[in-house]
Amino acid sequence: MTTRLTVITAGITEPSSTRLLADRLTEAVVKALPGGDAHVEVIEVRDIAHDLTNNVLTGFASPALQERLDAVVGADALVVSTPIYSASYSGLFKMLIDVLPADSLRGKPVLLGATGGTARHSLAIDHALRPLFAYLGALVAPVAVFAASEDWGSVEAGRLGARIERAGADFARVVAGSPAPRPVDPFEDVTPFESLLADASRS
Prior knowledge:
Structural class: alpha/beta
Number of helices: 7
Order of helices and strands: EHEHHEEHEHEEHH
Number of strands: 7
Radius of gyration: 20 Å
């Protein structure tokens, strides 16, 4: 069975270390999935920045934005990667999360990644990103990856690679054991009318 993996990356520049981290995490996850069978769709948030602003102001999604939202909703699992600004995720990244349909992340496995100038920002994963996705009901992977600028150096790159491989393998186990959440039908648990009549007649 093919795993639908949607990758959200909120880097601003091109090329972007945030996108690079997202790509490396995705490769590690796909490699660790049983059979390596995955369909990957990447969402560059900066490409839809204007669409996000218009959606926040008007409540209507453009076709380009709606396509990305559908990719998030329809995914079996998400890999997210955001730069850290002022000790938290980027505002552009949060805008995308804010316009997602209600409960669309409930029960969905999410692997967290973040980048920053120094390792001092690494705690942002636990005090900002993890609570955000926990609040939304996502199944947040216990192992996340933060990459500071120095992590891309020669010696540090080897350590970062090992952390990425570990996170990918851990997340693949989470995904393999967590089927995609089924959309909730608000009418599937409705009490049959006949039962309501029977209850009324007995009262």
